[in-house]
Amino acid sequence: MTSSTLTRAFQLPAEPSRTDADLAIPFSRLLRVEYGKATDTRAARWLLAMVAVTTIALMMAPILSPTSIEQSYAGYLSYAAMGLTILLPVVSILTLTSEWSQRTVLTTFTQESRRIRVINAKVTVSLLLAVGGAVFGGLVTAAGLGVAAASGRELEANLSPGVLVGYLLYVLLNVLMGVAFGALLHNSAAAIVLIFALPIGFALLGRVSTAVAEWIDSTTTFNWLLTGDSAGHLPQILVSVALWVAVPLAAGLLRTVRREIN
Fold first, then answer.
1. So what's the pLDDT on residue 2?
2. Domain range for 203
3. Are residues 121 and 31 in contact, defined by beta-carbon separation less than 8 angstroms?
């Protein structure tokens, strides 16, 4: 037996090569980290607190104006939805833009080089916050209805599964619109201004153009979901969702994946 044969005989087997999948950060850890970034700052806490305050404040409108505002379960729920979607999309914008503004994105993408996984975690966190907000809005609505019933007024019990699904979709779509603008612009101020200014601008245009009002104005199309009137307007809603959510989100994801970090 030669020396080379002896060497091979007693040589330890080589360790199997580790793939990128073996070395990847677990997605659950990415979620925890991104959830902390989205909620564990002073600005985020204040924003989430203001979301709660705004929702409760708007719920007082139907309670204090029983003669001028529809007194129904669905009507009360719509006020909770409007309260949630004033500032909750801003939270989702900051989830996507704050790292670019604070110059910490290089550290994030160094720790996890596959940017799409980080983006997926940020989007998932935004959706989780939206669902949590929707649940909170439901609780505020229940409390508002309890106060109204205790005052002796009659309330129309018109909540249906379709209305509840429309309420949830309304909240989710508004939050996803914030995600899309944040991913596309990478600038907090610009995204926040546009997410308020563009819907207002198209709502004004919708007053003089039926096509704009029914196909582009997200205020009109998303409200059809909220009021449970989506059955006859599904094509318009889908076009509006594509324009306000799907297209900017796809473009934003592409830009985030390809953008050079200076």
1. 52
2. 25-258
3. yes
Query: Residues 195, 177: contact at Cβ < 8 Å?
Result: yes
Predicted local confidence at residue 23, as pLDDT: 57
More confident position, 10 or 142: 142
DSSP letter string over the chain?
--HHHHHHHHPPPPPPPPPHHHHSPPHHHHHHHHHHHHHSSHHHHHHHHHHHHHHHHHHHHHHH-TTTS--BHHHHHHHHHHHHHHHHHHHHHHHHHHHHHHT-HHHHHHHS--HHHHHHHHHHHHHHHHHHHHHHHHHHHHHHHHHHHHTT---B----HHHHHHHHHHHHHHHHHHHHHHHHH--HHHHHHHHHHHHHHHHHHHTT-HHHHHHT-HHHHHHHHHTT--GGGHHHHHHHHIIIIIHHHHHHHHHHHHPPP-
Question: Considering the domain boundaries, does residue 187 fall inside one?
Answer: yes
Pairwise CA distance, residues 167 & 220, whole Å: 14
9 domain-assigned: no
